[in-house]
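User: structure tokens for this one?
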Amino acid sequence: MESITEIWQTELRVYAAPAFVLAGLYLALRGIGLTWRALRLPPAQGGQSLRLMAGFRSAIIGSAVAGIAAGWLWQVEGVAIAAALIGAGELCETSVDIWALRREIRTTSGRPRESTT
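Assistant:
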């Protein structure tokens, strides 16, 4: 437990935390871009939902990394803990969604699409 306290309180956080914030923001913006591109695809194109969820997961993970790093930099434990918990929860949820969408694509890839009308 002492090593965690040392990492939390180290003066090196002034240099490391901003790098993690920038990396997290880059990942979040990249995910937002992927999500936006998925939303602009025609609805009939296969894999739209998978691309949407992959972009959303990237945006959530990037936001969580940036939030944890900001909490570390500012020494606000609540921010870091909240970002970690929200990020972990959303990571689990989106990973299950992506797994299910990939499985659906694999099982229906050889069959013709059913008509919805």
